[in-house]
Amino acid sequence: MAPLRVLCIHGYRQNGSSFREKTGALRKLLKKQLELVYITAPLTVQTAATEAVSNQENNSVPAAGGGEEPRGWWFSDIQARSFSAQQQCEKSLGLDDSISAVREAVKTQGPFDGVLGFSQGAAFVAMLCSLQEQKLELEFNFRFAILVASFRSACEEHQKFYDAPLQIPSLHVFGLEDRVIPDSMSRDLLPCFQDPHVLIHPGGHFVPAAAAQRQMYQDFLKRFHCSKIVEKC
């Protein structure tokens, strides 16, 4: 059984290399089910101005990995070029560039069966799924989404992504002890999906990959393996 190919979208102040490192346990847990492909956001984050956010977002571990700079998918504060999930704003900066980066990744590294995002990356995944369902990005053809520590953007110009419940099968993963994206913020995103599956873990701001979560991941992914086999036949 060939693994499902999944595009991985990192969190704010991470990059593709650091997110790959932080999801090593997940890759090991689901090595027979998934092939994870990592990309890096186009927006460079200013390190000195956001040091406190860095420590929170990355569980008090430095974000950068593999020589890459810390990156983000959009900035909620245009002047400071910074981001906070709680910050309300009328306009953001950089989202179009990030959508273009994903479009290019799908063209050059796809096709992908699904998409997985963490924190800001998971909020971005919800937007990508909305664009796909509105047929505004014809390159996108994700069959499922996994959103870890996700949230609904507080930016006014992003509310268009939440107009109608998304039909794409989704698994929403969040921790009861998450101090960066409280579980209440992740729960607020659930009504934006038609039939969301939920995996709650007792920990904080990270991608859980313990044996206790294996069955839930596998149960969610099983249908896509089955349909992939049928398609090949």
UniProtKB/TrEMBL annotation:
Q: Which keywords appear in this protein's UniProt record, sorted alphabetically?
A: Hydrolase, Serine esterase
Show the SUPFAM superfamilies listed in the entry: alpha/beta-Hydrolases
Q: What Gene3D superfamilies does the entry give?
A: alpha/beta hydrolase
> What is one GO biological process annotated to this record?
response to retinoic acid
Going by the entry's taxonomy, the superkingdom of the source organism is recorded as Eukaryota
Q: Name one GO molecular function term.
A: carboxylesterase activity
| Pfam family name, one | FSH1
Query: Domain Serine hydrolase, which positions?
Result: 3-216
Q: Which reaction does it catalyse?
A: a carboxylic ester + H2O = an alcohol + a carboxylate + H(+)
Listed GO cellular component terms? cytoplasm; nucleus
**Enzyme Commission number, as recorded:** 3.1.1.1
For this protein, the record's InterPro entries field holds: AB_hydrolase_fold (IPR029058), FSH-like_dom (IPR005645), LovG (IPR050593)
Q: What does this protein do?
A: Exhibits ester hydrolase activity with a strong preference for long-chain alkyl ester substrates and high selectivity against a variety of short, branched, and substituted esters. Is able to hydrolyze ester bonds within a wide range of p-nitrophenyl derivatives (C2-C14) in vitro, with a strong preference toward substrates of >8 carbons.
Name the family: Belongs to the LovG family.
User: Do you know which PANTHER family this protein is assigned to?
Assistant: ESTERASE OVCA2
Protein name from the UniProt record: Esterase OVCA2
Species whose genome carries this gene: Gambusia affinis
